[in-house]
Write the structure tokens for this entry.
Amino acid sequence: MTALDQTLAALAEPTRRRIVELLRERPRPAGELAREISVSAPLMSRHLRTLRLRGLVEETHADPRDSRVRTYQLRRQRFAELQQWLQQVEALWTDQLGAFREHVERARKGRAT
Amino acid sequence: MISNDSVTVTTVVRAGAAETFRIFTGEIDSWWRRGPTYRTHHGVMRFEAGCLLEGECQIARVVAWEPGVRLLMEWDTWSFRPGERTEVEVRFEPIGDGTRVTIEHRGWQPRGEGAGAFRAVAGLWWGALLPALHRAASKP
């Protein structure tokens, strides 16, 4: 099974898909996820473990006063960084294409006169 | 336009497709912007021996050279991760009495370990599952 197959398998399970949908709104503690979806705490732990091993979610420490509270969030850090990078690349190419267009216009005018 | 793995920009110039391709490739040193943001090496930019060079440094390797239609390059610079190679495709399409030039730069997705999870998260980000995030990401 490829990494993609494993990821898709992780998301094929309805409960895990529901977890991802809830986490898209905001990070949530495991207990809250269990209550929202109405599954037992041990079953929720197993689902979260699967999602974590597939790299889809990660634990955060939202509550520094209580390290027992495990809060989970979608792992989109790398993706957000890539988006930022792509915006820079888009700006560069937009600049270059603008310069190219001006150059072609100048060349045409040069020939016309 | 930005998708989860590519950047596409486009413009229309008032010249035929063959002429536009010739100017794009043959006069690249004249129109490619100058300054450290745009040029990282020194010397004349030119297509030579299947490569795009800047001085003696290779910027890209030409994969497909189809005058008036398409130019495909393996791009060595502007990498997100060190040593990364991406792909730049330039398409030339006749439109009215001009040519539409489209540049698509793509291929930043991680390969190998972790690629599947990354693609899935990227898909979630842009797909119907995450319309709220999609809207947020689309804001300028």
